Amino acid sequence: MKHKPRRRYTAEFKSQVVELLQAGKPVPELAEELGISANLLYSWRQSSQRPEFGSEGPRAEGERDAADELRALRRELTRLRQENDILKKAAVILGTKPQPNSEP
């Protein structure tokens, strides 16, 4: 039996992968694209969610730190922008014109 050399990943690479997962990218799809075990990606995601410092520590029921809320809003914004881009591309493919932005 031939032994594969163990690959090492930088903390920056891991954090970028976790960000993609948090933005809504499915684990199996990302694992296939990167050539990495899905179990490894689940492990990275779980370890990134462990409380270490600051706002992730124990707190009173119902209390939410501003940094936590900002992170959640940024994740949602990223996901919505991706969905919007997909819908625009689909509209072009289907031959319909996208609606003008209602943003100021």
Number of domains: 2
CATH class of the largest domain: Mainly Alpha
Q: What proportion strand?
A: under 5%
The major β-sheet equals:
none
Derived from helix and strand composition plus strand pairing, the structural class reads mainly alpha
CATH topology label of the largest domain: Arc Repressor Mutant, subunit A
User: Regions with pLDDT < 50 over 5+ consecutive residues?
Assistant: none
Mean pLDDT: 80
What is the annotated CATH architecture of the largest domain?
Orthogonal Bundle
Task: Quote the distance from N terminus to C terminus.
Answer: 63 Å
Helix content: 55-70%
Instruction: Please report the total strand number as a whole number.
Output: 0
Shape: flat
Descriptive key words:
mainly alpha, 58% helix, 4 helices, 104 residues, flat
In short:
It contains 4 helices and no strands. It is mainly alpha-helical. The N and C termini lie far apart (63 Å).
Notes on the protein architecture:
This protein is mostly helical and 104 residues long. The chain has two domains: 1-50, Arc Repressor Mutant, subunit A; 65-98. The protein contains four helices and no strands.
